[in-house]
Design brief:
Elements (H helix, E strand, L loop, with lengths): L4 H7 L3 H34 L4 H58 L2 H43 L1 H16 L1 H31 L1 H6 L3 H54 L4 H23 L1 H19 L32 E8 L9 E8 L4 E5 L6 H8 L7 E6 L2 E2 L5 H6 L1 E4 L10 H8 L5 H10 L3 H5 L18 H15 L3 E5 L7 H15 L3 E5 L3 H5 L3 E6 L2 E6 L1 H7 L2 H8 L5
Parallel strand pairs: 3-8, 3-9, 6-7, 7-8
Antiparallel strand pairs: 1-2, 1-4, 4-5, 9-10
Bound molecules: adenosine-5'-triphosphate and magnesium ion (MG).
Length: 588
């Protein structure tokens, strides 16, 4: 049987719908048994006892009613199954999204985004057949045959036992299959997810692939992955077919044995003609639910592997997420105030922070001790790979430090509810993904109740009104996926407008490495200068001019903090900053 423990918790999302689906399955068997039983009685009365037709008619009416009832029950069962799958899939999707949000970009980075996408999309879809067809049928195939076999044993022990043995042999042969097939289902999913991830990577990296003239290599890899998936598909089908054939043979043999036993019983006088008829007609009903379960095998096969992939995401260790309403220290000016918030900016403190990226041999940060005063702008500078982004990611809780703590207003951020914490940080960079299909959609994410006047105000403060003016439908112009229609500098100004709107008091600025044209650069710099007012800012600086505008500069090298001080003090000290400036390696 293709059952995984987590499936039970999925089904628990809609216990009534599950019970309804199972009940309908059992009721179908009951209706068919009633139909066959009344037919057997009718045949017995009409042909064997040669009773008047009037005595047979009621039985035929019962048989017809049972047939009609079966149809009705099947419809109700289908409705219950549909409700079950809608509920379960909805809940699983919601749990996956919540898990991915809590796991955050740090976790997603380590995974293949394509695999996660395959799981969240097709994986959840694959669960549909598993949850709404396979699992309920598994329950029906356990309950109905058991009851019928017991009835059979009461009616005629030899035939009942024979049917029982055949019915038990069918599922008992399963563990063998499950071991074989279980692995295959995993291999099938593996092949599918790999291909899916590869396709997505290739699509996302198309410009790079073209540049490197590597599309041919990628195509060959994709062809290999496709071949592997085809093989897995084929072997899955073959196994399914063999299993179904074996089941049919077992059922056929069981039916033959019961029929022969009934015949012998009739000849020897052990049972009467009615009992013989009931046995011969009824034996099919013992096996029907089991055969139906076999026909759902494919749904079970795909669903089980998908459920395991979903499990991996749901079960991944998450950063501490406290219950809603956990305390956020006073004065942080969290979103509530929106763009009119009275900001002071919180104090930030990195306390002996060390961190190594998962799977990486070298530490990205070692024993960082750094204080940022409320409202201060601190520029981080250092060579590529020095750990600037990592430090900022720790502040955003993409990751938690291996050692040490990050404090905001004296509170360890690991003890603050994750969403509250992330709400009070605004990130401005050229890589900011514009979510939502239009600029309005994206802005409203930061403040759903913002009115047009407020949106125009923040766009004005972000020097982004000209960006909007250049679009055919203004802020309602469709932007394409991730804001593809906008340039880096334009996206950056939309990010600044979003930051104004959210009122987040802590600002992370990732300066663009590529130069903007003079006018755009001036616009962005002006908007950023306004945005920094009243906020505590951590700025990743790539240019001397930007770093020089900060209150203090922190120089990182190979994950260590070399020096911190005001731009003038550091330039004068002749220390590492002066070296880096002289060597022109920091400010590329
Ligand atoms: N996801 C990751 N997995 C493993 N190692 C990583 C990961 N991200 C960064 N690193 C490593 O951590 C170190 C610090 O990287 P980080 O991105 O913080 O540098 P940076 O100072 O931001 O560099 P740049 O100026 O090039 O952006 C580097 O050695 C890098 O190779
Ligand atoms: Mg970086």
């Amino acid at each position: 049987m293709l059952v995984i423990p987590r499936a039970v918790t999925y089904v628990a999302a809609a216990p009534l719908a599950f019970a309804g689906t199972v009940l309908a399955g059992v009721a179908v068997v009951a209706a068919r048994v009633t139909l066959l039983g009344s037919l057997a009685l009718a045949i017995d009365r009409a042909l064997i006892q040669a009773r008047p037709f009037a005595e047979v008619t009621p039985l035929l009416v019962v048989a017809s009613a049972a047939g009609l009832a079966e149809l009705g029950i099947r419809v109700l069962g289908a409705l219950a199954a549909a409700r079950l799958s809608t509920r379960v899939l909805g809940q699983v999707r919601a749990r996956l999204v919540a898990a991915l949000v809590e796991l955050g970009p740090g976790w997603l980075r380590g995974q293949r985004a394509g695999r996660v996408q395959a799981t969240v999309g097709d994986g959840v879809e694959a669960l549909q057949g598993y949850v709404s067809a396979y699992l309920p049928q598994l329950a029906v195939a356990t309950i109905a045959p058991t009851v019928l076999v017991l009835l059979g044993i009461v009616i005629d022990p030899p035939a009942g036992l024979a049917a029982g043995i055949a019915a038990v042999l069918l599922p008992l042969s399963k563990p063998l299959w499950t071991r074989l097939v279980g692995d295959r289902s995993r291999a099938h999913w593996e092949a599918y997810a790999t291909l899916s991830a590869r396709m997505q990577e290739a699509l996302a990296g198309m410009p790079t692939l073209r540049l490197l003239d590597a599309t041919g290599d990628r195509r060959a890899e994709i062809a290999r992955d496709t071949e592997r998936l085809k093989r897995e598909n084929r072997s899955g089908l073959a196994i399914s077919l063999i299993a179904y054939c074996l089941a049919t043979v077992a059922v056929g043999l069981g039916t033959v044995v019961v029929t022969v036993l009934a015949g012998l019983g009739l000849v020897s006088g052990r049972i009467g003609p009615l009992t013989a008829l009931v046995l011969v007609l009824g034996v099919a009903e013992v096996f029907r639910p089991l055969l139906e379960l076999e026909s759902f095998w494919s749904a079970g096969f795909r669903g089980r592997a998908a459920a395991e992939a979903i499990d991996e995401i749901l079960g991944a260790p998450r950063p501490l997420v406290m219950s809603a309403g956990s305390e956020v220290s006073a004065g942080s000016g969290v979103v509530s105030g929106g763009c009119s918030a009275s900001l002071g900016g919180p104090a930030v403190r990195f306390e002996r922070v060390s961190f190594t990226h998962p799977g990486s041999a070298a530490a990205a940060l070692v024993g960082i001790d750094l204080d940022i005063a409320p409202g201060e702008t601190l520029a981080l500078v250092g060579r590529s790979g020095a750990g600037k982004s990592t430090l900022v990611h720790l502040l955003q809780r993409w990751y938690d430090p291996d050692q040490g703590r990050v404090l905001v207003n004296g509170q360890d951020i690991a003890t603050i509810e994750l969403t509250d914490h992330r709400h009070r940080i605004a990130v401005v960079s050229q890589d900011v993904h514009l979510l939502g299909s239009t600029i309005r959609d994206h802005l409203l994410l930061a403040r759903p109740d913002a009115e047009d006047a407020m949106l125009l105000d923040v766009l004005h403060r972000a020097r982004a009104l000209d960006v909007v003016a250049g679009l055919p439908d203004g802020i309602d112009t469709p932007l394409g996926e991730r804001g593809a229609r906008l340039s880096g500098g334009e996206r950056q100004r939309i990010a600044i407008a979003t930051a104004f709107l959210s009122g987040a008091p802590l600002l992370v600025l990732d300066e663009a490495t590529s130069a903007l044209d003079g006018r755009t650069e001036a616009a962005v710099m002006g908007a950023v200068a306004d945005l920094r007012q009243g906020r505590t800012t951590l700025l990743i600086a790539h240019r001397l001019s930007t770093a020089a505008g900060a209150d203090r500069i922190a120089v990182l090298e190979a994950g260590r903090l070399l020096e911190v001080g005001t731009p003038t003090a550091l330039a004068r000290s002749g220390g590492r900053l002066a070296d880096l400036v002289a060597a022109q390696v920091v400010f590329a």
